[in-house]
UniProtKB/TrEMBL annotation:
It comes from Pseudomonas leptonychotis. Residues 53-144 form the DUF4399 domain. Keywords: Signal. This is DUF4399 domain-containing protein. Residues 1-23 form the signal peptide.
Length: 144
């Protein structure tokens, strides 16, 4: 139990603003021809509250978070973000930044009725955006 508490304390210290562990975390290079895009839904689509989202990636491979393989990464879906997240630190996990660290290439999203924006961003083994960022164009969906 003591080691668990010490481990949690270390994690809290690493994640605190006073000691940003990510400050020394290098960003992985993106292949020059890498691109991420939505296969589904199409930009401007009207969808139900729960709908399928399929991710496309070209010029590199998909690998789960934690896997250190060259020219690979995993998907993150950015939902209704007004501006992209910081590209020099690990992506936060929130309702607006969804992680697919198991290497998933599709998911089911449930969103409230209304207009929403979706964007894909590829992260490396540590959830860091690649350098340069591999980010899709923003698409718009209307949820009924």
């Amino acid at each position: 139990m003591k080691s668990l508490v010490m481990g949690l304390g270390l994690c809290a210290t690493l994640l605190s603003a006073a000691s940003p562990a990510w400050a020394e975390m290098p960003r992985s290079s993106a292949p020059a021809d890498a691109a991420v895009y939505f296969i589904e839904p199409a930009d401007g689509a009207t969808v139900g509250q729960t709908f399928t989202v399929k991710f496309g990636l070209k010029g590199m491979g998909v690998a789960p978070a934690g896997v250190d393989a060259p020219q690979t990464g995993h998907h993150h879906v950015l939902i209704d973000l007004k501006q992209p997240p910081a590209m020099d630190q690990p992506l936060p996990m929130s309702d607006n930044v969804r992680h697919f660290g198991k290497g998933q290439t599709e998911t089911e999203l449930t969103l409230p009725p209304g207009k929403h924006t979706l964007q894909l961003l590829v992260g490396d083994k540590n959830h860091m955006p690649l350098d340069p960022p591999v980010i899709s164009k923003t698409i718009n969906v209307t949820v009924e």
